[in-house]
Amino acid sequence: MKKFTCTLALLLALLFGLSCLQPSALAAEGVAPAWNGIPATSFSGGSGTESDPYLISNGGELAYLAQKVNESNSTSNPYRGAWYRLTADIDLGNQEWTPIGWNASAPYYFCGTFIGGGHTISHLKISGNVNYAGLFGSLANASICNLTLRDSSIVSSGYHVGAFVGNTGASPETLCNLHVVDTTVEGKYAVGGIVGYASAGSGYTITLCCSSVQGATITGTQYGVGGVVGQAGGPGGTANISRSWCAASQVSSTSYGGAGGIVGMVANNSTTSVGQVVHIADCYSTADVRVGTPVAGSNVYDAAGGIVGYARSAHLTVDRCYSTGIITAGRCMAKNSLTYAAGICG
Q1: How many CB atoms lie within 10 A of CB 165?
Q2: Which of 30, 175, 176, 308 has its CA 20 to 30 A from that of 211?
Q3: Cα distance between residue 340 and residue 327, in whole Å
Q4: Which ranges of the chain does DSSP label H, i.e. alpha helix?
């Protein structure tokens, strides 16, 4: 029986691994000096089109992108919807980072295409009370692909916190081949290893595929804490999460709410509309998942799951997924409250 179990696990790992590139699989030559905290005044080249994207070769130019996206509330800002490509690994030097697209309210968002080229961004740092915290703060009709974030710290007392993306807007998004390694992600609620809050509007689809979280710790003080996505859900639309995995050291909510190895919480916060459709397929988690013990209040819950922590008011399917971590939900002491823990969905 033990031999059969090991063989099955190996086959599943090969299935997922062959279909998705690992963090170093697209690594390219070129390492820029550590960023000194000062934005550049231009990009290395390019005009921002699909055939001639803006080229980003160092931390100053990446900060210049954030500055140009964030500086104007005009919907005609050409930098928000442009094409960008990394040409070197970037060390952000643990300088305080301002997310690209710092606010979820239009038009403060990134709606362009960012091509990582297999490169790595390291030593990103965000601290303080920052909502929509991550390399990118808020997206709208954006695409980000082929990039690794390593040895970074996103520690906020705000909400919608993710290593790559804090918040996706009510529009189509594509996130593919994104990898987080040895990174700390902390926030209030909707906290994820890759995306904090993934919500698509009616008729739109969010796609997250071939991505991973390794050696990271993801912690929230409330609900919706996930190894890959903190919270998925909204008044409509579809979220497809596939061929992704989490090998975080731990995924935990220190108070109440849902924590999961892939998605912390699948929920529609609206009381008047049909919930978002969320599909999770060909994913696995080896992370230990824990939800703490609330001792005050009422009508709260502890829910921990190997794949999904908690699901309500949304349409959820989970196919060909498994988890091997330790799943723990503390005894809920609050009035009229419940505790759930399970290997797939709490």
Answers
A1: 33
A2: 30
A3: 10
A4: 2-19, 59-70
Which H/E stretch holds residue 150?
strand 143-150
Average pLDDT per block of 10 residues along the chain, 346 residues long = 39 46 52 92 97 98 96 78 97 97 77 97 97 94 97 97 92 94 97 93 88 97 94 84 94 87 83 70 96 63 90 86 91 64 85
Look at the domain 2-342 and name its fold. Pectate Lyase C-like (2.160.20)
CA–CA separation, 92 and 83 (whole Å)? 21
Give SS3 for 119. Answer: strand
The CB-side HSE value for 71 (13 A sphere, CA atoms) comes to: 10
Cα gap 129→246, rounded to integer Å: 26
> Measured between alpha carbons, how far is 110 from 106 in angstroms, rounded to an integer?
10
258 and 265 in contact (C-beta within 8 Å)?
A: yes
What six digits make up the tokens of 334? 């609050």
**Cα distance between residue 116 and residue 134, in whole Å:** 16
**Cβ 239 vs Cβ 277: under 8 Å:** yes
Tokens of 125: 């740092």
